Amino acid sequence: MEVEVYNINGSKTTKKVTLNDEIFAVEPNDHAIYLDVKQYMANQRQGTHKAKERSESRGSTKKLKKQKGTGGARIGDINSPLLKGGGRAFGPRPRDYNFKLNKKLKRLARKSALSYKATGNNIIIVEDFSFETPKTKNFADLLNNFKLSDKKTLLVLCESNKNVYLSSRNLKNSKVVSASNINTYDILNAKNLIFVESSIKELEKNFIEN
Fold first, then answer.
1. What's the number of domains the chain is made of?
2. pTM of the prediction?
C-alpha cells in the first residue's frame, strides 16, 4: 500500500511511502487485540485495594447475647460481617493483576490494530521533523494543519524526541510515542495515527520476524 508523504504544514510532497503488508494489511485477530488491551489495562492497576475482614476490625470479641432463648438468630461478636461496622466477608486484598502474553501474540495484536487503521484511511505520514524548543503552539499548529485538533491523535516517532514530547503534553487529545514503544491500546484509542517517515522502517524492524 502506497501512502503520500506530507510536510508539517499539511502540504503533499513528491514522496511516497510503501506500507508493508505484513504490518498494515494482515487479517485482524480480534481476540489477540482483546488480550493485549486487557494486559495493558491490567498493568495500569495498582492493586493496592484492601478492606478489613472480621479478624482485622476493631471491636470487642465478647458474645453479644446468649446462644438460645432470644427468638432471634445466633450472633457472635460485634465484628461479624452481618452487623453494621463489622468486618467485610471476602473483601479485596492487595494483588498483582499482571499476566503474561507471548511476544508473537502481542505482535499480532499490534499488527491487527494497525491494519484496522490502514483500512479506515486513518494513517498520515509526515516528513521527519523536530522543534527547536518545547512549545505547545508548535504541536497545536501541526494538528490544525491536518484538521485533527479536535480528534484523538497518536504521533509515532522513530525515536524519542524530548521537545516534541513536551510540546504535546498539554494537549489532552494527543499522545507521542516512539515506534519501539507503540502498543495496541494507544493505536485503538486514537482516531488518527501520524507516523514520521523514518518510523515506518523502525516498525518493520520490530514487527517483521527475521
1. 2
2. 0.83
